[in-house]
What does this fold into?
Amino acid sequence: WRTVRVYRLGYAHVQAGPRTFLVLSNVTEEDPSGQTLPPTSFGYALREGMLPDPNNAGASLHPVPLLISIDNGHGGLVGYEYKAWERRLYGSPAPTWARDRQWAVARRRVWDGVSGAEAVTVYHRSDPVWKDLGRHVFRGFHWTEVEEPTGHRHQHFFHRGLGSWVDPDDPEQYKGKETG
It folds into this structure.
């Protein structure tokens, strides 16, 4: 075997409330002689999301790092925008409310660093699906439609493990059940 290139991964600890997350901060490509290219760096923003809560059997809102930018070190940049999907549940003892919040990429912006042009990809989604598994659990989306920078659209359907009523060949059966 002959080494052609080496990738050095850099990590950072992000303090988010009572938790610490290990995130990828940069990647540096190196040839066998040790020459390197500019590092690709990753940027994050903290947003409140659902995480397992070590103090109880359920989950609660805590800050979590979401990837918002990738800079290739040559002028190219990718940026991510997110949409929050939230469900409020009436709890016990009354009158309390529990919340569940998940984040999904809503838009990706790409600048190639050469032309100055921006290419935007937009992600459209069905309503989220929540399933009662002892507590309401986020199970994803029935579909995601991707709108490419060219204007082309394509739709993807997902299995969410919701039980025997799911027939992957019959999308009509999901109507009215998306948030049930």
